[in-house]
């Protein structure tokens, strides 16, 4: 099974607004795929749909070839889910949380789970409510990894953790992934956290997928053009976003730039700049290609104002 | 999963065990003190005062006993599922390798069993207390005649309290699953339980077994016992019926309608009744109908509990984040 | 056989240099300094991931590249081991330093300021690195 997760036209509607729309993507088995976007973009919605906590309002979602059914244990056997709020039973001791994992999951690896916690010096007798935030996150991670899932779904696993706790959580997660080749699908709104960790990236904004692909191809496919405000950019390129100050204009474009002309400087954007460029488009999608005949340089949120010469 | 259900809810179960045990001990204390004071001779003034105090305590106990099934339902039932929604631990539980159905069913029967056991354990104590104290006092709550078929004793003896408790529990759980908030589930449970209890005692229980009707002409009154059994029958009040052997054509008005019209006439009421072959008298449920009423009413409550159980499972299965 | 990894990697997340690149460079640097000798085992993928929390695939890729460059060999079931060394710095260094000073004098004579010289050097290093990545190695 080469595809761990696949969605086709997936959508989820909450009363009057859509939390996710027209989402079509593929997470390859064995990869680490990141989901990035601002708060409210639909990341949690998508991850909850993948975990079976939610039902689609439109489209389909399947995990390892099977449609996700909320009440199916076949699906639950193969996934591990880490929720944004990291729910735990506050009154339980850490070892009781392990018992919980053990009793509710036939494929639970108790030795490994205890080892993870021992490596981090997390006391088994302590009540979960008395642990630090980082330790609670580790316990939550242990619960979802301990059942040895094939697909790990994590919703902002390192949010609001201090740098050391963040590092430790990712170390625990990734070394387990290295051992087993688990597929990972995780979300964050911090690009620099995802970049060294992920093979693929999906950029989500305003309930829609803006773009997705391997990090390498994303970086290779985009360029920054820096030039004067008055200059007209080379034709035939997809302008993703534009930023203007008094004398200078910076465009994020998609596609390789054979000849940019003497007025334009061509730079390689870093991943963060690419993500920011897509998040700035606020859901209208990439702008139509710029045509030579447009008298003004169009902004990223409005179509070209003129169709052509009279 | 049984481990999880017990571990999650053991605190509230133990609290209810404590409260129930305390109530049981209080009943034992009252009955025992009572026994110590009563003898064949006329009581002294101080003894009378103590007896009066014990009677007050018994009144409070009786009220608590009536309320206990609802309390169990509210404390053990309402937070069973609603509490998980509040803490978002449903997201934790429903992503483990267990179906939501099994999760719900196991929690339900583990805690439900505890509720039922509690209720059943208290029944013999309540029967002993109520039997001893009401016999001696002569009257009990609300000044009605004593006897276990009387509404206030009926509700705390026999098998009914167990059925009430299971129903209240099921109601709490299902309201919690549907409304997703413990507070609303508590309010809903108390209101619905109370309304149903009232409806049952006034309208449904009286017809669960055939009533006995004694026309006034033949000596029926509001207070005459019908059997030699020292336990009084349940007096349902005055009413009307067609005389035995009367052929009632289909579509004709009921005996009640005819009877009401007749007694509202300024004169000739009795003659009107005789013409239509309608009798006026007192209706009772005799004391030996006690067990028939107990089983049938319990069956109704249990049926509702099973229905609510099914609804709760459906609600959990369908719940979407 | 000493227990635990022989060297430790670090990842500069701000540098713009891809992670697998940095790993390759650090292994080559360790070889040059003699920290790693033929027969030594490189840190396992799991060790690297534990240290610096990066994608295991990135480590696999770096190790594969090193294998292609002929510097290491993978033994199935055991790990990745150093095949040959790069320790040539002590011999070449004075010569290289001399040539560098010459070039800097020439650049200054041509009118380039220190900043322009640094920018030119960075560009040249990048171009050379890209060429090396293509498999052509310049010792």
CATH architecture level-2 label of the largest domain in chain A:
3-Layer(aba) Sandwich
Q: Let me know the CATH homologous superfamily of the largest domain in chain A.
A: P-loop containing nucleotide triphosphate hydrolases
Give the neighbour order of strands across the main sheet of chain B: 1-3-2
| Biggest interface between chains | A-B, 35 and 23 residues
Q: Strand pairing plus helix content of chain B: what structural class?
A: mainly alpha
- Counting DSSP E segments of at least 2 residues, the number of strands of chain B comes to 3
Cα distance spanning the termini of chain B: 23 Å
Figure out the total of helices of chain B: 10
Main beta-sheet annotation of chain B: 3 strands, antiparallel
Architecture overview:
The complex is a heterotrimer of chains A (310), B (321) and C (139). Chain A is an alpha/beta fold. Chain A has helices at 43-51, 73-78, 94-104, 110-119, 133-146, 163-180, 191-194, 215-221, 271-279; strands at residues 3-14, 17-28, 32-36, 58-63, 66-67, 79-82, 151-155, 183-188, 200-205, 208-214, 222-228, 238-244, 248-254, 265-267. In chain A, the strands form 3 sheets. Chain A has a 6-stranded mixed β-sheet with strand order 6-7-8-3-9-10, sandwiched between helices. In chain A, a hairpin with a 2-residue loop joins strand 1 and strand 2 (17-28). Chain A is elongated and about 65 Å long. With 321 residues, chain B is mainly α. Chain B folds into 2 domains: 2-208 and 290-318, no CATH class; 212-288, no CATH class. Chain B is built from 10 helices and 3 strands, in the order αααααααββααβα. Chain B has a 3-stranded antiparallel β-sheet with strand order 1-3-2. In chain B, helix 1 (2-37) packs antiparallel against helix 2, helix 2 runs parallel beside helix 6 and helix 4 runs antiparallel to helix 6. Mean pLDDT of chain B is 87; it is low at 136-145. By secondary structure, chain C is mostly helical. Chain C folds into 2 domains: 19-82, Orthogonal Bundle (Arc Repressor Mutant, subunit A), CATH 1.10.10.10; 89-133, no CATH class. Chain C has helices spanning 19-33, 45-52, 56-68, 89-109, 114-133, and strands at residues 72-75, 79-82. In chain C, strands 1-2 form a two-stranded antiparallel ribbon. In chain C, helix 1 crosses helix 3 (56-68). The radius of gyration of chain C is 18 Å and the shape is elongated. Chains in contact: A-B, A-C. The A-B interface holds A 48, 51-55, 70-73, 76-77, 79-81, 83, 85, 87-92, 96, 99-101, 103-107, 143-144, 147 and B 1, 3-4, 7-8, 11, 87-89, 91-101, 317, 320-321.
């Amino acid at each position: 099974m080469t595809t761990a997760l696949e969605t086709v036209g997936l959508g989820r509607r909450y009363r009057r607004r859509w939390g996710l729309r027209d989402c079509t993507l593929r997470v390859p088995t064995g990869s680490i795929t990141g989901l990035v976007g601002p708060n409210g973009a639909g990341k949690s919605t998508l991850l909850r749909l993948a975990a079976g906590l939610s039902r689609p309002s439109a489209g389909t979602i399947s995990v390892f070839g099977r449609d996700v059914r909320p009440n199916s244990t076949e699906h639950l056997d193969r996934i591990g889910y880490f929720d944004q709020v990291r729910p735990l039973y506050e009154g339980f001791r850490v070892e009781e949380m392990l018992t919980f994992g053990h009793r509710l999951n036939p494929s639970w690896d108790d030795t490994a789970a205890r080892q993870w916690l021992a490596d981090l010096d997390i006391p088994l007798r302590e009540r979960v409510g008395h642990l630090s935030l980082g330790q609670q996150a580790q316990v939550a991670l242990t619960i979802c990894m301990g059942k040895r899932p094939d697909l790990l779904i994590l919703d902002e696993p390192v949010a609001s953790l201090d740098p050391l706790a963040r590092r430790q959580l990712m170390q625990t997660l990734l070394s387990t992934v290295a051992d087993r080749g688990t597929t990972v699908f995780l979300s964050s709104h911090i690009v620099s956290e995802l970049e060294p960790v992920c093979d693929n990236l999906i950029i989500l904004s305003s309930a829609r997928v803006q773009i997705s692909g391997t990090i390498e191809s994303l970086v290779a496919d985009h360029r920054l053009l820096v030039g004067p405000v008055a200059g007209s950019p080379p034709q035939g390129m997809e302008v993703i976003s534009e930023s203007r100050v008094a004398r200078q204009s910076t465009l994020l474009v998609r596609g390789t730039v054979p000849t940019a002309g003497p007025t334009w400087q061509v730079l390689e954007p870093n991943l963060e700049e690419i993500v920011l460029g897509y998040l700035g488009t606020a859901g209208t999608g990439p702008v139509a290609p710029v045509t030579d005949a447009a008298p003004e340089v169009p902004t990223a949120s409005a179509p070209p104002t003129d169709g052509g010469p009279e | 999963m049984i481990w999880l259900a017990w571990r999650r809810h053991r605190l509230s179960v133990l609290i209810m065990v404590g409260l129930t045990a305390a109530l049981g001990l209080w009943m034992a204390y009252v009955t025992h003190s009572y026994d110590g004071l009563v003898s064949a001779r006329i009581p002294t003034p101080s003894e009378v005062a103590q007896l009066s105090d014990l009677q007050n305590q018994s009144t409070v106990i009786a009220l608590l006993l009536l309320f206990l099934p609802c309390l169990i339902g509210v404390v053990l039932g309402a937070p069973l599922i609603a509490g998980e929604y509040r803490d978002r631990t449903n997201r934790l539980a429903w992503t483990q390798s267990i179906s939501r159905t099994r999760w719900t069913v196991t929690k339900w029967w583990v805690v439900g069993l505890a509720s039922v056991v509690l209720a059943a354990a208290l029944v013999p104590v309540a029967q002993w207390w109520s039997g001893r104290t009401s016999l001696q006092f002569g009257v009990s709550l609300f000044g009605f005649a004593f006897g276990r078929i009387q509404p206030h004793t009926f509700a705390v003896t026999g098998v009914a309290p167990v059925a009430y408790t299971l129903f209240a529990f099921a109601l709490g759980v299902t309201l919690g699953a549907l409304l997703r908030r413990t507070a609303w589930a508590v309010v809903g449970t108390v209101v619905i339980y109370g309304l149903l209890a009232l409806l049952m005692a006034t309208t449904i229980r009286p017809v669960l077994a055939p009533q006995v009707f004694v026309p006034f002409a033949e000596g029926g009154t509001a207070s005459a016992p019908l059997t030699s059994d020292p336990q009084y029958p349940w007096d349902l009040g005055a009413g009307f019926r067609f005389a035995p052997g009367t052929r009632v054509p289909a579509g004709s008005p009921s005996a009640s309608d005819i009877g009401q019209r007749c007694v509202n006439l300024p004169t000739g009421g009795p003659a009107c009744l005789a013409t239509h072959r309608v009798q006026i008298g007192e209706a009772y449920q005799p004391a030996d109908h006690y067990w028939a009423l107990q089983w049938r009413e319990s069956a109704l409550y249990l049926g509702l509990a099973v229905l609510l159980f099914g609804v709760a499972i459906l609600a959990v299965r369908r719940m979407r984040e | 056989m000493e227990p635990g990894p022989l060297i430790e990697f670090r990842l500069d997340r701000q540098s713009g240099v891809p992670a697998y690149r940095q790993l390759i460079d650090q292994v080559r640097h360790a070889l040059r300094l003699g920290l790693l000798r033929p027969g030594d085992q490189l840190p396992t993928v799991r060790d690297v991931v534990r240290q610096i929390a990066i994608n295991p695939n990135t480590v696999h890729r770096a190790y594969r590249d090193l294998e292609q460059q002929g510097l290491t060999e993978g033994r199935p079931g055991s790990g990745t081991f150093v095949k040959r060394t790069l320790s040539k710095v002590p011999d070449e260094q004075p010569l290289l330093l001399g040539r560098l000073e010459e070039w800097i004098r020439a650049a200054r004579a041509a009118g380039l300021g220190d900043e322009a010289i640094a920018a030119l050097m960075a560009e040249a290093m990048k171009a050379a690195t890209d060429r090396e990545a293509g498999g052509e190695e310049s010792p």
